[in-house]
Structure formats: C-alpha cells, structure tokens
Amino acid sequence: MKFRILKKEKKQTENRFVDNAKKKQRKARKRRKITPFLIVVSLFILAAAVYLCLTMLFNVDRIIIEGNTLYEERELIETSGIEKGENLFEVDTAYAENKLYSVFNYVEAVEVKRSFPNAVTITITEAEPFSVIEEADGYTLVSAGGKVLERGLEEVPYGLLSVRGLSTITSTEDDVKRMDLMQSIINSMKKLEMEGYNFLDLSDTLEIVMIYDDRVRVNLGNELQLEYKLQFADKVITEDLSKTGFQLVDASVPGEVMTKEMTVSPWDTLGRVSGTGYADEDEE
Hints:
With 284 residues, the protein is α/β, with parallel strands linked by helices.
C-alpha cells in the first residue's frame, strides 16, 4: 500500500513538471509572436519622429550674419541659398560656404553653422589687402590669405607689398608654385611682424629679392630656410642698419647676414648683375 502511494505521488510530481514545462513553452511562443510586433511598432514610432523633425520641427526662421561690414546681408543670404522655412537638417552648409567664398571677393573665409532649434549662423572673415602683383593689365590686389580681391589697379596702394614674377591670369604650373611661395613669405612676414617692405621679386626663385623702405635691397637666395633668413635679415635691418642711405643686406646663406652700402637706389639694381652699385663690405 505504501509503495502505491509513493508511486502515485511521483507520478503527480512528474505531471506537474510536464505541465510547468508546457506553460513555459506556451509563454515563449507568445513572446516570439509579440517581439516582431513590438519591433514594427518601434520602427513606426521612430519613422514618425524623424518625419516630424524633418517637416514640422527645426525649421529655419532666423539667418544670422556675423563679421560682415562690406556687403548687404540680403545679398549674402540670397547667395547662400538658405531660405527661411527650410528644415535645418536640409541646409547644405558646404554649398553655402563655397558659394559665398567664390562670389564675394572680400570674403576670406566663411563658416555656416546650424544653430538649433531654428537658426543658421553665417560667420564671415573679411579679407585684408596685403600685396599687389604686377601683371600685364595693371596691379592685382591680393589678400594676406592669397585671394585675388581686385584687378587692373593703376598704382600700388600705399603701404602694400608689390610682387613681381608671377601671374594670376595665366596660372601656369610655375605661377602656382610662385603663388604658394609668395603666400609662404607673406605668412612668415606676418608671423615675424615684418613691416616697411615695399617689394618682392620672385622672377628667379633661386635669387629672391626684397626691398625695404625704398632704400634697402634684401637678397634671400633660394627658398630653403626662408623664414630663418627673413628673421635674420629683418633683425639686422631694424636694429643694426643705418636709417639713411642705400644699403644691401645679403641673407642668402642661412645664419649669415652681410651688409654693404650702395651708391644707387635698390630699384635701379633690379635685373642687374649682382655687385653693381655696391661698395664697402661689412659682415654681421
């Protein structure tokens, strides 16, 4: 009798185990059926949110211009292609930046940024005239960043560096190389705070020449270690050289500067054989 009771209890236990297992299987099947539904619902909600952002929220209602003093804001906005009511996510910032830079000569750099929730900010960096390039049709005004600002000027604006030996019109491979060299020299001059230089001759890049204050000819040789040469030459000119009379400063050898008095203006020596008009050598 006792054996039968134990057997019965064992069977009941086994039945409960089987029932629990079946319940778990049914729940798992239900979860598997619900999961795809939840994924679909989630995707629908996400798509609706994206659509809402792209159509109803984050629309441009303000276009802010910063750093501009030269152009009408209306012109800048129209050229940028950005319109009020346009969605912020659809604003093509790269296109607007390139368009503004190419259309407006005195725009040296431009940055277009989305300002959430509903504005676009256009920041203009205006070009500063730094030098003029001697060309067949007159002087071409160039910014410190190397951008062409104006063409056909009849004379050099006061205080600007005049550059000879390259063209912005033909733009040959040599012109491009000389333009890069000119930009490198301009950057070095700005970094070293060099002032008072009237002229830069890049006709022969192995014999680069500058003129300071209309009375000092500066020989720089080739472009190797050019900033180093400029630094040495400018130090001698501003600290050691006589403030009057025609002078030659030869800084063509890095780390060495030689000075000479000249009997003629440095303008008269351009294109002549080295040595013409020089007298009395001193070495610094």
